[in-house]
Give the backbone structure.
Amino acid sequence: MYIVLEGIDGAGKSTQIELLGQWLIANGFDVEIVEEPTDSDIGRLIRKFLQDEDATSDYMQKTLGLLFAADRVLLMNKINKFKEENKVIISDRSFYSSLAYQDPKKWIAELNKYAKIPDLVILLDLDLKTSVNRSGETDEFENEEFLHHVKENYLELAKKYDNFKVIDGNNGINMVSKDIKKEVAPLVGICLSSIIK
């Protein structure tokens, strides 16, 4: 099972991934948590470029698109291995992030046409002002105008792909966690009634 959490910056993905992982482990599952970008040399270069003042420019968008696709190839190898071992993989972001954040869309889609399709994508939908306040604007991508564009892209992806489930990320941590569990439970064979109402 390959589960991905997506959303704009500050949506609470890291917190919810940790909670989801703990819950699955408590229910007897072997869990692996991964993230994009990875901690590879390519991933570290991506993190550096994300802080560049020109990170949202056309040429940097294309550069980041290429780097994310290359980094993703390394990650897909790991994910395939984990799936063979019957582990539940929870990922912080996937190729859908590139489709939401980078342009041009058709080119980005072509770069990622061999990326593994997640079994479930949880999109944490968050208010833009909350996103900017939480993220602290450490990257050039973390400004309200740009994130508005990204949020709209995510919501379009959610309409287009059946594996997306949109969760209101503006609710409290526990409520968001419960909503995520309700989406995951049927896919992994956990009874919904076991989730506290």
Q: What stands out?
A: The radius of gyration is 16 Å. The mean pLDDT is 92. The first helix runs from residue 13 to 26. Strands lie at 2-6, 31-35, 88-92, 120-125, 164-168.
